[in-house]
Design a protein that fits this description.
The chain is an alpha+beta fold. The protein contains 7 helices and 14 strands.
Amino acid sequence: MSSCVVQPFADQPQAREELAGFLACRVGPRQNPGAWLARLAHWWDQNPFASLTGERGWVLRSREDDELVGFLGLIPACYAVDGEPVPAVSPTTWAVDPRHRQSALMLGRRLGRLEGRVFIVSTTGRKDFQARLVRRGWQLHADATRQFVPCGRSARLWLGQTETLPPGARIVTSLDEVSTIARSFQNGRGIEKWITPAALRWYLNSPARRHRFAGMVDAEGCLSAFLVLAPAPVFGLVNAWSVVDWFCARQDVDDALRTLLAAVASAPAAFGLGRRCGLPPILVRLTAMAGDSSWAGVRGLLRARVSLNHLHLPPASWPPRPKRCVLAEGDLGL
């Protein structure tokens, strides 16, 4: 018999306090439990998709003294499947006390029970588990291309962009100026994130990481394209920001995204891209998944192939569908 037992996480104030204390000691650099309480509240209270599923994950407890010794969480999410919203979950924060590491797979088996029943998206799991998940039917999106665009006065020249915007369009930095999201010109074929003003605001307000926003709206505040950026220092020193989410509902996808990128890169301070070690932003990083042509027209620096850990598993009843991937999926940045 195992020395531990797995239980569904019962989301109550006292249970959250206990969980936050455990995670503060076991996940990354030691933190104040208050930081983890803020993240849990963001995942489960402030999340606009929280009501789509009641499951919050599982805890591992010692049979000997009922001590909390492990956790695997679930963050509710929502995806557009052929243009219609569908509930989803993203596993997060698989943490086990080293004294009970032999029981860690008990948590993984609970996640396995969801396979085939609900849409699951994972982006921060262990890479040594990739092959195992693929054998179980998960679809892997690992191949990507990364490049950099310089910031400052040379950005527009580098990108070949002028100040011209499409007729009636303007660039905004706040979601307060966004009222609706434009319907994609692709008519919602395949799988992609379900985007709403509330979902964007929730992601931008994550307590885990700073995010900045640049959007293209019309006179009525309808958002037709946007970029979300997060700090991504190169070698821990060079002040760079990464485009972690991007969307365009316009047919001129390449022009619209490059217009936003040129605006951000040429005047990063105007979009809230902060200094690092006293230096202004020097680079903007772009990452394109295999098959994504969003940045095909960009001539970047230090272009290189990279491997990511994006996986998804659709319900067993779904027919095959293409999926549009961006960096900001799963629990990345949350």
